[in-house]
Amino acid sequence: MKLSIVVPAFNEEARLGPMLDTYVAWFAPRHGTDMEFVVVVNGSTDRTEHIAREAAARCPQVRAVIEPRAIGKGGALLLGFGEARGDLVGFVDADTSTPPEAFQDLVDHIGDAGAIIASRWMPGSQVSPRQPLARRFASRIFNRLVRLLFGLRITDTQCGAKLMRGDALRRVMPLLGITRWAFDVDLLFQLKRAGYRIVEWPTVWRDAGGSRLKVGRASLEMFIAICRLRLLFSPFRWVVTVYDRTLGPFIRVKG
User: Fold this and answer.
1) What is the CB neighbour count within 10 angstroms for residue 209?
2) d(Cα 47, Cα 44) in Å, to the nearest integer?
3) Whole-structure pTM value
4) Does the pLDDT of residue 251 top 60, yes or no?
């Protein structure tokens, strides 16, 4: 199988169905059954599971993976990666902020790189509507910290559309944790440590609305998460033990 796209879904009954319809309509004519969508429903209390199962029954390209626990986006992605069968394995959010043609750009331009990621900050990217100032400011501070702490010369680690070579992903999977906000950084950092080249590609990103993100709390949790991750790969790893007993509960996924 050529391509697997993992879609984490937590209480996405309003957005998952239209997203899958849009993506299947784009990818099915181009890839046929040589690709799959692995929809990982986790901890949902609404109709997300029903929508995923219904899509899987209707479309041969869709598979539904149901996890009753709320394991967070990172946990859902790890579960989906384990189920994915593609030579290329990627993931995208369930809100269609990244349109299918923008994800196809990643497939078309990965070349011999280990990974290619969508960027909302590269020249040529199209973001609409423009995000609020507070969110843009938090994004740039986070990016500066990631560059400083991990040496990742990447403009946008958090955009929810990424594609990896299956062999590269499977090599680093045992090293990945499920820290809520640091998962994408962890993934890219492990790929870099393993010697894989990471390419960025300007993307089209449309704010789909309905986000439950609270910028203030999220910014604090993101800062704590990347500090914890960096300590794990430093001579001060012992500090993580202290961290887990104090600040850890702020970002730890329950269950």
Assistant:
1) 10
2) 8
3) 0.87
4) no
- Residue with token string 């269609």: 96
Each residue of 171-186: pLDDT tens digit?
999 999 766 678 999 9
Q: Give the pLDDT confidence of 116-156 residue by residue, as tens digits.
A: 999 999 999 999 988 788 888 888 998 999 999 999 999 99
Residue 219 · residue 142 · CB < 8 Å: yes
Q: Are strands 161-165 and 88-92 parallel, antiparallel or unpaired?
A: antiparallel
Helical segments of 151-211, H only: 166-172, 183-193
Give Cβ neighbours of residue 247 (< 8 Å, ≥ 6 apart).
Answer: 224, 228
Identify the CA nearest to 102 among candidates 87, 77, 120. 120
Asked if omega into 129 is within 30° of 0 (cis), the reply is: yes
> In whole angstroms, how large is the CA radius of gyration of the chain?
17
In angstroms, the CA 214 to CA 159 distance is 17
The token pair that represents 11 in the structure block = 């209480």
Q: Residue 25, CB half-sphere, CA atoms under 13 Å: how many?
A: 7
Nearest C-alpha neighbor of 73 from the set 234, 227, 218: 218
CATH homologous superfamily of 3-209: Spore Coat Polysaccharide Biosynthesis Protein SpsA; Chain A (3.90.550.10)
Q: Provide the residue type at 46 as one letter.
A: D
Which pLDDT value is given to residue 253? Answer: 43
C-alpha distance from residue 3 to each of 27, 249, 253 (Å): 10, 36, 29
Can you tell me which residue has the tokens 């309905």?
210
**Domain positions in the chain:** 3-209
Mean of the per-residue pLDDT values of the chain: 89
